[in-house]
C-alpha cells in the first residue's frame, strides 16, 4: 500500500555545487527527473476548494496540471498551465511560489507544501525539450489593433491574451531584445536566456508582431499610435527601470554602479561571456552590494562569478526583514557572499584618480515599524568603520521611467511618477489606454505583473467589443 500524499517527502531538486557554480553562469537548479516530478505530484491532495489557485495572480489551474503530471501526461500539464500563463518556464524559475500558491497549500500547514513551482518548471521544460509545443486556437480576427508598450512580463501576457481573442497585436520594445526585466535584470544562472527566447518566440505563433529598438515617447507618442498609426487601444507595461541612488557623497566615483546598469551589462549585453562579448563590466576584487532584495542577490552572485575575491552584501535591516526570496538568500550564502546586516554606507571615498577606494559604514539597530510594516533602522551613534572597496553596486530599488508620462500629459501619474490605473482593469485617465505592472505599482514580482497584464487584456477586449 502506498503512503498517503501527506506522508510523502517533498522532492528536493538537484543543484550545481556552490564550488562549481561560482565559476560559471550555468543554471543552478538542475530540474526534476520524470520520476521525481511524478512523486512530487503524488503529494497533492487535490483539494476541492483549491486554496493554492487563490494565491496565483494568473489563476493557473494548479490541481488540474498537477493531476496530469501524476499521470505522466507532462505536455498536457504544460498546456493546462498555458491556458492562463504564457510563461510557465519563466514562472517556474523566478516566481516566489513560497509566498503565493505554495503559501496556501494545505500540506504546508503541518509540513512542506507541494513544490508547485518546480513542477511548473518541469512540465514547461519537458514540452519544449521534446518538441511538443502546440499553437493554441485563436478566435476569429476582430479587425482591432492593440499596441503593447514594453515587453516585460505584463506586456507579454497582455499581448498573448489579446492575440488569442483575435486582435492584431504589436509589441514595441525600446531595447534590442524582447523580455524587459526578464532579459536585462535576471542573471543567466537563474533564468537562461535561450529558455526565455523560446517562450517569447511562441507569441509569433499567435500572430503577435514584435518590434525592437522602438522607443515609444521618441519614435511615436501614445497619442500618435492611436491617431496616426491606427491602434484602437494601448497597453503600457514599461516597468520601473529608473535607477535609484542613496544620495551620499562619492556615488559619482568610478566603480560605483546602479544594479540596473551592472545587471544590464552582464545579462542583456552578455558581458559575462568573456572572449565572446566586447561589453565592458567592472570585475572588482572587493565588491559591495547595497540592498536586500532579489536584485541585490542577483548583483552579488554575479559579481562573485565575475571573479571578485570578496563580495559584501550590506543591508540596513536584519535578515528577517530581507525582501529577497529565501532560496536566493540561501544560494548567496552558500556561494560565499558575506552578509553585513544592520549596516549601511554613509559615504564613499575615492583615490587620486577618482576611483572608488572605500566606504564609510554605519552600524544600525532596529527601532519602531515604519510605513512598510518593518522595523525602522536607526543609526548607532559613533559606530562607524571603513571598508576597502573597488566596486559598489547600489540595489535599493528603481523608479518609474518618465519617458511615457513626459510625452503624454493627458496621462495621470502619482507623486512618485507611476501611472495611475484602475487595479481591476488597468484603465488610465486616457480612453483606450491601459497600464499594468511595475509602471503602476512600483517594483513587484514577475507573476504580479503578469496578473496585471491579464486583467488589462480582459478589460481591453471588453472595451474593443463595445466599440465594435
Concise synopsis of the structure shown:
This protein has 468 residues and is α/β, with parallel strands linked by helices. Helices cover 32% and strands 18% of the residues. It has a five-stranded parallel beta sheet. A five-stranded parallel beta sheet has the order 6-13-7-8-9. Strands 10-11-12 form a three-stranded antiparallel beta sheet, with no helix packed on it.
For the largest sheet, list the strands in their spatial order: 3-2-1-4-15
* Average residue-wise pLDDT: 92
Radius of gyration: 23 Å
CATH-defined architecture of the largest domain: 3-Layer(bba) Sandwich
Structural class by helix and strand composition: alpha/beta
Shape: globular
Report on this model:
With 468 residues, this protein is of the alpha/beta class. The chain has three domains: 5-129, Alpha-helical ferredoxin (Fumarate Reductase Iron-sulfur Protein, Chain B, domain 2); 145-241 and 400-466, 3-Layer(bba) Sandwich (FAD/NAD(P)-binding domain); 242-394, FAD/NAD(P)-binding domain (3-Layer(bba) Sandwich), CATH 3.50.50. It contains 17 helices and 15 strands. It has helices spanning 18-21, 34-41, 51-54, 62-70, 74-82, 88-94, 116-129, 153-164, 181-184, 193-205, 222-227, 259-266, 294-305, 326-334, 403-407, 438-441, 446-466; strands spanning 145-149, 168-172, 209-211, 233-236, 242-243, 256-258, 286-290, 310-315, 338-341, 343-350, 356-369, 375-388, 391-394, 398-399, 433-435. The strands form four sheets. It has a five-stranded parallel β-sheet with strand order 3-2-1-4-15. A five-stranded parallel β-sheet has the order 6-13-7-8-9. Strands 10-11-12 form a three-stranded antiparallel β-sheet, with no helix packed on it. The N and C termini lie far apart (60 Å).
